[in-house]
From TrEMBL, chain A:
The lineage of its organism: Bacteria, Pseudomonadati, Pseudomonadota, Alphaproteobacteria, Rhodospirillales. This is Hdr-like menaquinol oxidoreductase integral membrane subunit. PANTHER family: PROTEIN NRFD. It is a multi-pass membrane protein. Belongs to the NrfD family. Pfam families: NrfD. It is found in: Cell membrane. Keywords: Cell membrane, Membrane, Transmembrane, Transmembrane helix. One of its GO terms (cellular component) is plasma membrane. Gene3D superfamilies: Formate dehydrogenase/DMSO reductase domain. InterPro entries: Electron_transfer_protein, NrfD-like. The chain crosses the membrane at residues 17-38, 58-80, 92-110, 130-151, 163-188, 194-219, 239-261, 281-301, 313-335, 364-388. It comes from Paramagnetospirillum caucaseum.
TrEMBL record, chain C:
Belongs to the DsrC/TusE family. Transmembrane segments: none annotated. The lineage of its organism: Bacteria, Pseudomonadati, Pseudomonadota, Alphaproteobacteria, Rhodospirillales. It is found in: Cytoplasm. It comes from Paramagnetospirillum caucaseum. GO terms for molecular function: sulfur carrier activity; transferase activity. The keyword Transferase applies. This is Dissimilatory sulfite reductase. The active site is at C109. GO terms for cellular component: cytoplasm.
Automatic annotation (TrEMBL), chain D:
Keywords: Cell membrane, Electron transport, Membrane, Oxidoreductase, Transmembrane, Transmembrane helix, Transport. Residues 67-209 form the NarG-like domain. It is a multi-pass membrane protein. GO terms for biological process: anaerobic electron transport chain. It comes from Paramagnetospirillum caucaseum. The lineage of its organism: Bacteria, Pseudomonadati, Pseudomonadota, Alphaproteobacteria, Rhodospirillales. This is Nitrate reductase gamma subunit. Signal peptide: none annotated. GO terms for cellular component: plasma membrane. One of its GO terms (molecular function) is heme binding. The chain crosses the membrane at residues 6-25, 68-85, 105-127, 139-166, 186-204. Pfam families: Nitrate_red_gam.
Automatic annotation (TrEMBL), chain E:
Pfam families: CCG, Fer4_8. It comes from the Bacteria. PANTHER family: FUMARATE REDUCTASE IRON-SULFUR SUBUNIT, HETERODISULFIDE REDUCTASE. The keyword Electron transport applies. Keywords: 4Fe-4S, Electron transport, Iron, Iron-sulfur, Metal-binding, Transport. The keyword 4Fe-4S applies. GO terms for molecular function: 4 iron, 4 sulfur cluster binding; metal ion binding; oxidoreductase activity. This is Fe-S oxidoreductase. It comes from Paramagnetospirillum caucaseum. Residues 69-98 form the 4Fe-4S ferredoxin-type domain. Gene3D superfamilies: Alpha-helical ferredoxin.
Amino acid sequence: MSAITSYTQVRPYTRGWLALMAGLGAVIAVALGAVWHMEHQGHWVTGMTNQVVWGLPHVFAVFLIVAASGALNVASMGSVFGRVGYQPLGRLSALLAVALLAGGLAVLVLDLGRPDRLSVAMTHFNFKSIFAWNVILYSGFMAVVAAYLWTMMDWRAKRFYKPAALAAFGWRLILTTGTGCIFGFLAAREAYGAAVMAPLFIAMSFAYGLAAFILVLSLSFKMTRRSMGDALPARLVRLLGLFVAANLYFTALHHVTQLYFAGRSGVEAFILWNGGIHTALFWGGQVGLGGILPLAVAYGGCGHAPRKRAMMASVMVVLGGLAQVWVIVIGGQAWPLDLFPGMEASSTFADGHVHDYAPSAWEVMLGLGGIAIALVVTTLGITALRLLPAHLGEATGSCRSPD
Amino acid sequence: RQAGQPASAAQRWGLLIDTSKCGVECTVCVEACKAEMGLSGHDRPRTDAQYVRKVNVRDPATGAAHSVPVMCQHCAKPPCVDVCPTGASMKRADGIVLVDRHICIGCRYCMMACPYKARSFAHEDQSGQQPHLPRGKGTVEGCTLCVHRIDEGKPPACVEACAARARGAMLFGDLNDPKSEIAQKVAREATTRIRADLGLEPGVRYQGI
Amino acid sequence: MAYTSNGAAIEADEEGYLTDINQWNEDLAGQIAKDEGITMTPEHWEVVNFLREYYSEYQIAPAVRVLTKAIAKKMGPDKGNNKYLYELFPYGPGKQACKIAGLPKPTGCV
Amino acid sequence: MTIFFAILFSVSTLVFVAGLAMKIAQYARTPAPLKIPTTPAPLTKGGVALRLGREALLFESLFRGDKLLWLFAFVFHLGLAVVLVRHARYFQGEAGPLVALVQPLAQPAGLAMVAGLTLLLARRFVIERVRYVTGPSDILMLALLLAIGVTGMLMKCVIHTDIVMVKAFFTGLMGFELRPLPADPLLGLHLLLVCLLMIVFPFSKLLHAPGLFFSPTRNQTDNPREVRHLAPWAAKLDEGQ
Amino acid sequence: MAAAPFDIPALGDPAEHPVPALKPGAMAASKPYVAAEAHQQPLGFPGELAEGWEKRAIDHMGGLLSKYRSLQVFMDICVKCGACTDKCHYFLGTGDPKNMPVARADLFRSVYRRYFTPVGKIAPGLVGARDMTREVLDEWYSYFHQCSQCRRCSVFCPYGIDTAEISMAARDIMDSIGQGQKYCNEIIGKVHRIGNNLGLPAPALLDTLEGLEEDILDETGVPVKLPVDVAGAEVLLVTPSADFFAEPHVLGLIGYAKVFHAAGVSWTLSTKASEAGNFGMFIGNYEQMKKISMRIREAARELGVKRIIFGECGHAWRVAYSFLNTLAGPWDFLDSRYPVPQHILEFTSDLIRRKGIRLDKSGNDGMVLTVHDSCNVARGARMGTEPGGQFTIPRAVIAASVPKLVDMHPDTICDKTFCCGGGGGLLTDELIELRVKGASPRMEALKDVVDKQGVTHMAAMCAICKAQFTKILPYYDFDREMVVSVHQLVSNAIVLGDND
Ligand code: HEM
Ligand code: HEM
Ligand code: SF4
Ligand code: SF4
Ligand code: SF4
Ligand code: SF4
Ligand code: SF4
């Protein structure tokens, strides 16, 4: 009946709330323990080596950061592209963007060799480094999205709503491009070094972000007993399908371009054919679980209710996405640097053969800790502020608890 | 250049390595480097630091084989420096590429960027450190071209050792000084750079590959 | 505050309710009604008279429901409702009619 | 200067401690005859402890009431807390782990405190309603803290003082031993204002710090039906019956 | 509605609550009638202001400060942060800055500072300390009777400073020097003399109840009884006397009767305890509050009941829930399986949950309900076993009785609810301007759901709220019958008959 959404906080300190926070807190505590161990012992206790220098933490961090910018999409749909149906979701979308970014950055920072020197990173900038630019992009993203959120929430700021929405939208595109460029600029690494990395990352971000959004939206609605209706999840899952298709398309494009480059057939064969775990994750995880299956669920209609389909597809996209980032980050490093093209090489420093990498439990803990941080931030956000719609679609009973 | 003078762009320090004089089994330069830089290691080859390594290269077509010492190539256009977010990776005016271990945050982006895999990460606490090269857990390090020796007017340790205990395959000098032996030899003979196609203009040149 | 009726001063409280119900007379009722902007009609008198009767029996004004029931009985079921009483006494049948009838003001949460 | 401050510090510390103790004793002694927690309220003592903890550490009610003020207040108090913990090093021989942990936060904390105070002061002039309820003492209180913060920050960042001597002075003072204080005007001003703060504390609105914990609307359990709550003076009325 | 002799606040969007510009002195003239000697004396208060009242006022203040920790602490710890300034419905409705809770409290605090704090004694100007003078007293009288003691300010204050406590103390001081409020004190006198706020004598009560029994029988064909003074009944129902008298209150009373009937629980009213309300709280007087409460104890004793249940009334429930045990306990002579006292909504919701009564929503067809959380229930009491039960239980009962229930804007419900505007002893005709203006935040939120969600009725669970709304709704172009009792809805929906 009403076009106006009412938002309510989530009631804190309920049994479920406490259990959730305790659970997430425990994961974070374990992650911090793992960090302490890794920092105290040094990185040799992880699976990372002088050959595979970025490991599982980076997989999680890149996934979260990429998803962060994509999570903002839903808000942009509502405000930049005027899709009114998405507007009630804008606040959660912005919050999730900040939360995911916070989680990703936390992992990234905690995996540094010297996380205690964070202040150095904040005060010493090498403006030639895309990485340094990313520090600025990330902090700026937080600020822009926070401002955007404010304009969504405070009626006094209504007139800044559009500009803020546009700024946030622009910023997030730059941000994802920046993240893609971290890899794109590594000319020496054969797996990367291609211009399609930028659009590929944008497609990835759309898909991961929306999937994360759908999961958080559905779970928070379920846990706080809010009603949603079927129209919205149906629309969201179709949109997700679109993004997944785009991701598949750019992945294909990437590999075709790679094959076209002279001298890149080795690495391509490695990823696509004989790379063991990486190949398995590429086909089974990235393409199958994260691409074809969700497409089928989104468009094929598997007979389940839209909300269930949306959840299923999102879980697949998240898992497939992690696989995809693994293939990019780890797979790309596993393929040896070719110092002497056309020659066979060997050395005490592992030249000339594929590098193996097996993540340690510590890295898994840290990565999961990042996800937990993102969820804690999200939970705190929807607890402290009115971000979550009281209901979506037709209101049913209205026995709302106090905030 | 006089000892104690600041580094200047007048110099461009470089190495010329004649692989034909490099024995397959010879690791004199590697051992010398370890001793000079205090790289005692933990006997964990995957994570221990190596500033210089011997790469055995074989041409599958001809069967011709070489053994090539590879260290930081002290690129003129070093990607490690470009990507380093804090500016810890830096190039001295005289072309030597170094890591400032006080501002390195251990992000390892430089290791991702270096095409020569010339850098190592200090994966754990180090012992047996040399006073001129304090090594800290959690930062990145690599061949310094023995900058501490150069500043005292001495050649790098590996070069000295190779000359003394092997066949003198390594030549050190100022590529910018036309009178220097290395500059004359580079001008005279056919030398190559590893992955010259990348256009990084390394300061280390090779002969015979 | 006070009214004058037949030359005598009749005391009332700040709001115009008589302090002594026994000093009430019909002329005074008309006067109070006029102050309230009401012209007394037979319908008004029905209500006022019922109030006085009820009061003399129970020492309190009747509940609204009792009043409407009584009015319905006397004047027909279509008039036995709140709306009708409010038409007669716009400020509320309880209080305004009581004032005119010389009754004390009902107190409490009403 | 040394002797002047030695005396001043002794006196103001005495006023501060005694005044505060008397006030707290007064609050503790005064009975709360009726159960008046603002509901919904916790049902158990543990719940009350949590509620008070959230009020003291997170300013929960203020957050619900005024988000912007909460932000300012939070920034200021957090900065203040860190600054005060950092100051423990002037009084302790051996710095504890907490003190060590916050040592690197000097600039951010001092900045947060000063910025928070400035914003709090600004809103007293900018917002009409707040201007209306603001009295001279409210402005002076903020100004006093601001002055302390600014002189402190100046010492920290611009004109350094000999903090080893400062430490010696205070550790000495605590053992009733006179050691010299650096003859530094900025430090003198800082300390003078700090003494003033300590003296006014027990007589001013700064009592909100201990007072929060005695506020009956926040520190009572919601169990009046289960447990009969009776103040001594009210019990006397019972006996009269 | 006939034009009112004052402006009626315009209603906007409750989500965009602009704070009104300050209009100093706008309500300075608003004050209730002063109690006459005849109203003062029965309560043991001096009949009028007499020579030396200033000193007596200060002495009394000193006494209160040593008896109430709340007062002492609240006097000291306010930091004038202003978080409360835009929370009071009277400020929002009138724009008078002295209706900002902190400014209201400062009227009291200024005197406290002058006489009880060193700084106020030495440098009064610095901290705004003032002597107790006639002008100050006039301000007190005016503005402490513009506080409905709703405690909304205390919710948002970082220290929980409750201006209601300060208003109560101020009113107690004014009573103690002979400057009482007529409305409250006259009513308290009636409770002592007759047994209820209305002054409804026993015969009138019996007659009224008999009439109601007839009505129910006519309407439903079921002989539902409204028993009075029945010794040995299980339940003593204590309900505001307005439930016997006014609309829609009385419809709620019928609802209670039907619930008891359907549940088969024996119950009784009492002529002695024919009032749930306790205006002793409004005037901040512990002894009066206790004396009024003791009537309930006596009635329960005399009738030999097992449990006490309170009808729908906000401040009555606060006194009952929070204070009754203190004032008139211990209640060891009642059945210990039940809390003392219980709220009728606790009783009914429990029956609904246990399927002890049946409700048919079609009895309320066409109604879309919203609910007004009465301030004293919301912020001063509880229902059920969980914190916040006072919000969920009424909603559960209403939801079970009506086809649709929606909530008003979240800033205006539950513990953030706005007072109806007539609480705290202000429900008197001479304060009509204050009442109309003070109701505006509630009316704004109501209009919002009426416009956007098609709400037709607003349920209230307090006699004062119901009386206030019936009076005030027409000023805002709503129908006066829009406000309904919660048990009126139950009454319409309950299925009687097939219970034996
Ligand atoms: C348990 C400790 C404390 C708590 C929970 C607390 C809490 C608060 C809160 C909630 C406010 C209201 C918001 C505001 O106006 O900023 C406030 C104000 C204030 N606090 Fe505290 N505080 C504490 C300790 C202190 C201390 C130790 C000081 C000073 C030495 C202090 C100085 C102030 C001042 C000056 C204000 C008024 C700010 C203004 O005028 O706007 N507080 N405090
Ligand atoms: C006995 C009491 C105090 C002494 C002896 C003292 C002394 C000092 C000294 C020596 C510094 C300079 C620090 C440096 O150069 O590293 C300083 C800084 C500072 N002081 Fe104090 N101070 C006292 C109390 C206070 C109080 C009560 C406050 C706040 C209400 C305060 C606020 C600051 C601030 C904000 C700074 C700058 C930031 C920092 O160094 O932490 N001081 N103080
Ligand atoms: S070889 Fe590697 S580490 Fe050395 S300068 Fe070149 S890019 Fe940097
Ligand atoms: S690891 Fe150190 S030197 Fe390498 S890029 Fe990172 S900060 Fe720079
Ligand atoms: S120049 Fe020095 S640091 Fe570099 S490889 Fe030779 S010995 Fe090692
Ligand atoms: S108790 Fe209610 S009426 Fe009184 S000042 Fe506070 S908000 Fe206003
Ligand atoms: S919110 Fe509390 S502390 Fe702040 S001004 Fe109001 S009463 Fe004072």
